[in-house]
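If your schedule permits, I should be very grateful for your opinion on a structural question. I would ask you to consider whether the tokens describe a fold that such a sequence might reasonably adopt. Thank you for your consideration; the sequence and its tokens are set out here.
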Amino acid sequence: MPSPPRVGLTGGLASGKSTVARLLREAGFEVVDADRVVAELYRPGGAGTRALTTLFGPGLLKTDGSVDKARVAHLIFSDSAARLALEEAIHPLVRAHFARVAATATGPVVFEATRLVEAGYAPDFDLVVTVEAPLELRLERAVARGLPREEALSRLVAQGDGRERRAAADRTIANDGSPEELRAAVAALVTEIRQR
């Protein structure tokens, strides 16, 4: 019996990736959010916390021993070498978590990650889907969510122009229209995945 489809879901900041992930979850697919996995890894004593302190010392920890995510975000979005070093330490842990989930999945399983392609995960999936929207619209959305404009710009720049992500994707969902259009695009994707 073939294993259930593994779907990689990606997209830049404020592209609508999390909305697509929610719609896929509502369709009955198991969705693993890379950010949530990292949050687990960053708990006091967690494997991610240990990796981070090995790289940068204890200065990025809170008093309870958990990772200060705001300080880590500031570091990685202002220092590309630090970001790459942290990704090299954390990505294998996240990848191993997803592999464990996928190994026991009984239906399609989706892995949601912003840097899925850039981190080299694309070959792990039967289908890679990217959610795309124009840069200015993404910036507007990020600011509307409460992210200061300069920080949003910094994150968008750090994520790159998305060319590599789009080139590696098997499917692209455009999210520059209405919510109804997005739901229709996701419904078509759900049908495609179920037919695999």
Notes: The first strand starts at residue 6 and ends at 11. DSSP finds nine helices and five strands in the chain. The mean pLDDT is 94. Residues 80-104 form the longest helix (25 residues).
